[in-house]
Amino acid sequence: MENYFNYFTEIEEQFRRCRSEAVLLSPLDWALIESWKEQGFPLAAVLAGIERSFQKFRAGKRSYRKVNNLAYCSQEVFRAVEEARAAVAQAGSSPAARAQPEAPFSVEEIARFLTRSAGAARSAGQRAQEAGRQVLAEDLAGIAATLQALSGHAPAQPSGDLEELERNLTALEEKLTASLLRATAVELLVEFRAEVDRGLVPYRRKMANAEVESLERRFLKNRLLEHYKIPRLSLFYL
Q1: Are 81 and 47 in contact (CB under 8 A)?
Q2: From the CB of residue 82, how many other CB atoms can be counted at a distance below 10 Å?
Q3: Can you give the pTM of this predicted structure?
Q4: Residue 69 DSSP class
């Protein structure tokens, strides 16, 4: 498995570089990057697809002057990924052993991240307790305890241990998201979904329905975590 702990920052920098000016990615842009990561899109292919998109944009006649969202690059990213996968298949499925990657984070950095995340979950649990939401408070207390326990034995090596930790964090975040969805008032969820619909307007014209639905789920999850002041539980956000 390739070490993609710089996946988000590399893509963000490539988009800014190709656009030739500083730009803040939107929450939906970040959700799109996450979908690429979870689908196993090779980082090099994604970067190549973004560059191709801007090359075609500059060569063509457009009714607009700038590329304002990452979704514009999605089709070229998909093409670049397919090409990369075809090249790997043609080369064979047993590539030479790769050198062990250098650890992207120190043990101390990982421990601090897990401790901060545990503290955020604990604080959210206390607020839920004060609001009389006992079930949510108990769920958040359990998640905080798990994160604190993980911080006590943060792994030192980037290959097996960090991958295992990331899998544990992913499962924990899914459990957290389910708890927040159950506990959130219907009115607030309606408000979040309306926000998602507005943000997806520039994406719907450029992406398949399945991709749009995936973005909707990820954006809603991010919005819930933001509302409850809990960070993403992933080393990609360290």
Answers
A1: no
A2: 12
A3: 0.73
A4: S
